[in-house]
């Protein structure tokens, strides 16, 4: 029996926790996490979409999306200083100084070295690719990559899990998702996958070992 195909999420698993990234962005720009999250939701709601879906599905370019964020932030928070925020080239500033989660990068390499196939299944943005690829470069080669902005589907949509399994040439039952969002894990399970809900490194590694038989890193 062949080992499972392990699909790692990027944001919040291979990257630092998203709350840490929002806090870092506030330090760079002065925009508080709740202000930015509110603007992201409003831009998406105007298109009847979930937050971030407009750029994660490449329905808006980064520049178009950032311009809409700027207008919403200006309208919602009069007097908010946006002079430090490069919203129209958001990814460059957002990912500046960000390094990978070293434990999960090590886990990906360790899984590959122990005969597992590994991939990244991520909701991501066309213009952000150079940034996130730099961040996960220490993980080395991937067997598969499924990126929402190129696939035309995003987690937790059922279609993206079906596409990922086909891309890997794997049965759904042989696919395992490691993701920091419970709704994505639930959606993967609904398509016949197994899933590890990432909450912290030690917990995720223990759950992954129990689920797949991957030798312990702990």
Explain this structure to me?
- Helix 3 (33-45) crosses helix 5.
- The two termini are 25 Å apart.
- Strand 2, helix 8 and strand 3 (144-147) form a beta-alpha-beta unit.
- The chain has helices at residues 10-14, 18-29, 33-45, 53-56, 62-76, 90-94, 102-113, 129-136, 148-151, 158-168, 182-190, 201-212, and strands at residues 5-8, 117-122, 144-147, 175-179, 194-197.
- The longest helix has 15 residues, at 62-76.
- The mean pLDDT is 96.
- It is built from twelve helices and five strands.
- The protein is an alpha/beta fold and 218 residues long.
- 50% of the residues lie in helices and 11% in strands.
* Tally of DSSP helical segments: 12
Radius of gyration: 18 Å
What characteristic shape results from the CA principal axes? globular
- Strand arrangement, major sheet: 3-2-1-4-5
């Amino acid at each position: 029996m062949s080992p499972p195909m392990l699909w790692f999420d990027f944001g919040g698993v291979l990257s630092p926790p998203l709350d840490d990234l929002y806090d870092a962005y506030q330090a760079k720009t002065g925009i508080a996490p709740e202000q930015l999250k509110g603007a992201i939701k409003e831009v998406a709601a105007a298109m009847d979409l979930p937050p971030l879906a407009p750029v994660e599905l490449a329905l808006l370019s980064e520049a178009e999306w950032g311009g809409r964020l700027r207008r919403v932030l200006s309208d919602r928070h009069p007097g908010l200083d946006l002079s430090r925020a490069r919203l129209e080239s958001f990814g460059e500033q957002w990912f500046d100084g960000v390094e990978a989660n070293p434990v999960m990068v090590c886990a990906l390499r360790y899984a590959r070295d122990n005969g597992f196939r590994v991939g990244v299944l991520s909701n991501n943005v066309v213009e952000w690719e150079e940034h996130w690829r730099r961040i996960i470069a220490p993980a080395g080669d991937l067997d598969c990559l499924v990126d929402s902005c190129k696939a035309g589907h995003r987690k937790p949509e059922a279609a993206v899990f079906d596409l990922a399994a086909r891309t890997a040439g794997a049965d759904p039952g042989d696919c395992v998702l490691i993701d920091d969002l419970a709704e994505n894990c639930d959606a993967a399970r609904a398509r016949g996958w197994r899933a590890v809900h990432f909450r912290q490194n030690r917990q995720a590694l223990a759950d992954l070992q129990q689920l797949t038989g991957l030798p312990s890193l702990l």
